[in-house]
Amino acid sequence: MKLARTGTPLLLGATLALSACTLGPDFHKPASSAPAAWPALQEKAAPSQPQSTPLEARWWETFHDAQLTALIQRAVERNLDLQIATSRLLQSRALRMSIASEQYPSVDLDAGYSRARNSAEGLADPSGKNGKSAFNLWQGDFVAAWELDLWGRVRREVEAADASVEVAENDRQGVLLSLLAETASTYIQLRSVQSTLGVVRENLDVSRHSLRLSQMRLSDGVATNLDVAQAAAQVAAVEARLPTLEERQAQLINALSLLLAEPPRSLQQELLTPGELPRTAQRFAMGLPSELAERRPDIRQAEARLHAATASIGVAKANFYPSIRLSGSAGFQSMQLSDFGNWDARRFAIGPQLNLPIFEGGRLKGVLELREAQQQEAALQYQQTVLRAWHEVDDVLRQYNASQLRRDLLEEAVRQSRVALDNAKRQYVEGAVDFLNVLTVQSALLANQEQWVESSAATSLSMVGLYKSLGGGWQSFAPVLQAKVERD
């Protein structure tokens, strides 16, 4: 008896020690390869340059456009893609809950009634009637089972499930980041088209004025029918640009409606009135390079995928070892309902179940090699994601710098074209030049004005792309979205 009492604590201690064993490699956060500072531009620097100050969380507010801010708020509240991503996150959390349940014992209640008759020629009839008549059977049991997680298989499965939840969370953050950028970009494009429409209509008024001037000069015998025809052609050519621009305006308004989960044309009354084209600030913050991996959802998602793949190796290794499952049941069984629950009707069963893989035909080895290869792939994908992020930031920085330089040069071109048009019109009235010179200069002005609007929009779009590449903005709505997930 003394040996038995001494051996019991030793056995329990050995079981607990084995339960603390976890096979497979432990996950370690990949080392950061971020440079100490953002790469400097080698070419001519534009007026607006980045600063290494903390990134502006609500970057869309730097455009100082209240309507843009309101549209973004509504998009976050209503967008269907974001709601779908939230649903995927809820599914991932539910799956994690299901997997984690294996860490705890399961307890079930089994109860039933049957009317049966056994064969007189078969095995012994438990009713004692030798199969000559039917009998009733009442039974009810509490059944409990628990697998001893000796090698950490369940713990690794829960670890992989936790990482999968992180994948889903960062997927939703990535959808939110794209939604912010797409809403801002679509709005900027809309204002750009509306600005271009304003330019074309302004030039249309100028062309009509030139046509009236030519007709008056023809009446006075100073101009020719050629001048009038050229002026009329110019009016038609400028006016022909309006339908395409108006169609593009309607498409962009519908695109914003879709982002806000609204039916087509629902935002026309709100957005048809032209507004100022959002302009960028003179200085903007980019944060520190070392913060990029913490902000960009795709990098965080790739890291979580690597974590899940690493934990899955432990699951595959644990399958090579024996598993022990403790199970037991206790309840009552009787042939008469009146006897059900009596002490003599009690029954119980308890005992461990051992499963030891002996020959699997290479299945377990193949699964392990698969998990190791998947972990290697996840590690390479993480490296590729980080590298792609740095390329995106560098490319957008250059694009933003170049678009500013182009915008400023085109602004000067517009100013000079206006001067040239005023001079050409005055010289035409004085008879110093023919009307073709006026048309040429006016066409140049229209082209420069349209390119200036386009370059101004490109500068603002580059700023949006830069904030997206930096992974900024989704953090502002994270608490609200988290509360929504917990509420659902």
TrEMBL record:
**InterPro entries recorded:** MdtP/NodT-like, OMP_efflux
Q: Where is the signal peptide?
A: 1-19
Q: Where is this region: Disordered?
A: 32-53
Q: What is its main location?
A: membrane
Subcellular compartments:
Cell outer membrane
How does it sit in the bilayer? Lipid-anchor
Q: Which UniProt keywords apply?
A: Cell outer membrane, Lipoprotein, Membrane, Palmitate, Signal, Transmembrane, Transmembrane beta strand
Q: Does the keyword Lipoprotein apply?
A: yes
Record-stated family: Belongs to the outer membrane factor (OMF) (TC 1.B.17) family.
What protein name does the entry list? Efflux transporter outer membrane subunit
Q: Which organism is it from?
A: Pseudomonas muyukensis
